[in-house]
Structure to design on (87 residues):
């Protein structure tokens, strides 16, 4: 292998490494920008179920939002992602 061939091989390796780093960065950004779930996807309803309701769920953000679910969330609502707060 002559010097010119070695240089081209080294450049290809550097380029491939750069592309891998760029792709990894894009995946991290995509994960960070992950959207909340749609209400229908978690069967959100605007009334409690068996005493379970958003106001006592760990994901509820007062006065009317949720860490996991998109849109306006009633404190009296419920969805299948319900997880009770420790009390
Ligand atoms: S029950 Fe569902 S919508 Fe309500 S706060 Fe919990 S995760 Fe969010």
């Amino acid at each position: 292998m002559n010097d010119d061939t070695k240089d081209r091989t080294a450049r290809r390796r550097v380029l491939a490494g750069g592309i891998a780093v760029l792709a990894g960065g894009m995946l991290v950004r995509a994960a960070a920008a992950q959207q909340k779930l749609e209400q229908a996807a978690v069967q959100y309803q605007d009334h409690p179920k068996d005493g379970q309701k958003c106001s006592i769920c760990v994901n509820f953000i007062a006065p009317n939002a949720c860490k996991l679910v998109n849109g306006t969330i009633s404190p009296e609502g419920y969805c299948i992602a319900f997880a009770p707060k420790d009390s």
